[in-house]
Amino acid sequence: MYQPVKIAPSILSADFLSMGNDIACIERAGAGYVHVDVMDGHFVPNLSMGVPLVKQLAKATSLPLDVHLMVSNPLDQIPWFAQAGASSLTVHAEVLYGDALVQAVRMIHEAGCKAAVSLKPKTPVQTLLPVLGDVDMVLIMSVEPGFSGQSYIEGSEGRVAEVVSLARAMGASPLIQVDGGIGEATAPKVAREGADVLVCGNAVFAAEDPACALRAVQAAAESARMQALGSE
Ligand code: DX5
Ligand code: ZN
After folding, report:
1. For a substitution probing ligand 1, which of 7, 46, 150 has the most ligand atoms within 8 Å of its CB?
2. How far is CA 86 from CA 38, 62, 134, 190, in A?
3. C-beta separation of 222 from 191 below 8 A
4. Which of 71, 148, 186 to mutate to test the pocket of ligand 1 (most atoms within 8 A of CB)?
5. What's the CA gap between 217 and 155, in Å, rounded?
6. Of 214, 189, 216, nearest to 200 (Cα)?
7. Which ligand ends up closest to the CA of 10?
8. How do strand 6-9 and strand 197-200 relate by DSSP bridges?
9. What is the pLDDT of residues 160-215, one digit of tens each?
10. Given 59, 80, 160, 166, which residue has the most CB atoms within 10 angstroms?
11. CB 121 within 8 A of CB 141
C-alpha cells in the first residue's frame, strides 16, 4: 500500500522545559514518529538525552519513538532503549566493525524493535551491504551528526538514490530516512530520490508555528515525490 512521506520531528530542537506541549503539537500536526537523538559525547561531541526520557516519552505519546543512537557502544545500549519503549533503533555503521553490524540488527529485532542503520555523510553506502536485506530502515545523514540546526550537505540526495538502487538490486525495500538540515527547501530534493521519512529539528521546532512548518515540509516532500513517480 502506498505510504506518503512521513515527518519525524527531532526533539533535540524542542523546548526541554515543555516537552509535553511540543509532543502534543507534532502529534496533532500529523507527525509520523518522534525522533530521539541520543548522543554520548564520544561518538559525537555533544551529550543529549537517554533512557529515562525515552521511558517518559513512551508513556506520553502514541507515536512510534524513533531512537537514533549516536553512541560508540550501540551493542551495550540496544537492550536498554528497547526496554524503555523505543519502536525503532538506529545504530551507526561506523562503530560496528565486521560481524558486529549484522549482530546489532539481529539484537534489535530480537528485542522487538524495528532496526535501522545510519551512515555519516562520508561513509560509503556499500557499508550497508551485509544488512541491507534485513534492515527496516536506512538513515542517511545529511549533516555530520552531533548538532541540530546545521545546513544540509548538498549532494546528499545522490546518496539516497544510491541506497535505493543498491536495495532494489537485491530485492530489498527498506524505508529511507534522511536526517540533517531538512526543511521546506531541501525536503523535495531527497523525496524525489526516494526518501520516505524526513527528520526535522529546527525546521519544525524553531519555526513560529511548528505545526504549520511540519505540514509545509511534508507537503513539499510529497509533491516532489509524486512528480518523480509520475515521470518514472
Ligand atoms: C544531528 C541529529 C539530527 C538533528 C536534526 O546529529 O541526528 O536529528 O537533530 O536537526 P536539524 O533538522 O535542525 O538539522
Ligand atoms: Zn537524528
Report:
1. 150
2. 12, 11, 19, 26
3. yes
4. 148
5. 19
6. 214
7. 1
8. parallel
9. 999 999 999 999 999 999 999 999 999 999 999 999 999 999 999 999 999 999 99
10. 160
11. yes
